[in-house]
Amino acid sequence: MAELEVLRDAAVLIDGDRIAWVGPRTEARGIHSAFRMPRSALQMVEVRGVLFPGFVDCHTHAVFGAPRLDDHQRRAVGESYQAIAATGGGILQSVRDVRDRTEDELVALTRLRLATLLAHGSTTIEVKSGYGLDLEAELKQLRVIRRLAAEGPATLVATFLGAHEVPPEYRDRCAEYVRLLCEEMIPAVARERLAGACDVFCEPGVFSIAESRAILTAARRHGLAVKLHADELEGAGGAELAAELGALSADHLAGISEAGIRALATSPTVAVLLPATMLFLGKRHHAPARRLIDAGAAVALATDFNPGSSPTVSLPFVMALGVSQLGLRHAEAVQAATVNAAAALGLAGARGQIAPGFAADLVLVEAADWREVAYWLGTNRVSAVWTGGLACPPPAAPLSLGFHVSQA
Ligand code: NIG
Ligand code: FE
Known about the structure:
- Helices cover 36% and strands 17% of the residues.
- It has one domain (55-343): Metal-dependent hydrolases (TIM Barrel), CATH 3.20.20.
- It is an alpha/beta fold.
- The chain has 15 helices and 14 strands.
- An eight-stranded parallel beta sheet has the order 4-5-6-7-8-9-10-11. It has a four-stranded antiparallel beta sheet with strand order 3-12-13-14, with no helix packed on it.
- Bound molecules: N-(iminomethyl)-L-glutamic acid (NIG) and fe (iii) ion.
């Protein structure tokens, strides 16, 4: 992960929506003819700065209504994430909110947020459901993602997270909710092809290892890939379960055990680390990124963009946290937000590299040194974005997060 090829004075040849060639600019003259492109069809764009592969945000909860400012304030005076969740705040507050909103309203809000993620360089964005927790509201969220995926210009990857929390109507009947997930919700999501993967919040007090195994086994039976919110707050064997099930990724991992590190190191499951979440929740510790990498695990970084534990849209900010909080080298932080993040979505061969055959998703960062991408903490240095070979229109200024909407 620490090896990053950096070309100076480089050129990239794009053919349609794919990269055809990349190399030194001195070798670029006439290169189009090797690809049988007529000179008249060539369009030249000169840029100054550092060109990165489009960033891949492999973990977001971008479909939500209002921000959760009360939770934020309660944590500031010492209440824990779990205590707030147990007394009416937390995920269930966003669930009430999302259930009350129309699909169109959620499309409008999410469109603004995706445009802001894109303006920070994320050209491929995973988006989870999980604020519906009943069939109708979960499908509503997934349809929001499908409609926005069709609009472009970012590539969206939908994940079903019906097991994000136990809904209030099943509070004391969790086993029945697990049955509903396995027998009705997962089959419906798979039938309508509304998601490519299924995720579970596997954490003591939410879904146990046994429940998570049952849900993800049902998901696999219906042809979905699996992912896991694992060992976020307390270590409980989530990473080991992810490796056992051949999950695409195990995410969070601040409480991962030694056995969990070994399990990920010897499996293709990607360890997705979310340092902005730990920072925002006021935690003083982080996932053991160095130990994971040194053991041989593939590590990715993501924003976890959501209203409760990580209201940030900036992968460059998360990369900077990767360097200063997780001990990643700058090159590792870049790999973690591109190649490895693509692998966490099952897209390793298609996205996250500037190489022939890869999607022509590119991000220009205003910088003299490539390491600046993970340095300017909290300012957006992204100056241009291309997806599928096409320039994305500059975002409306100021960027909107739709946070003016009233609280549910
Ligand atoms: O990844 N941990 C569970 N899910 C989210 C938080 C969602 C929320 O608080 O709304 C997470 O941190
Ligand atoms: Fe999450």
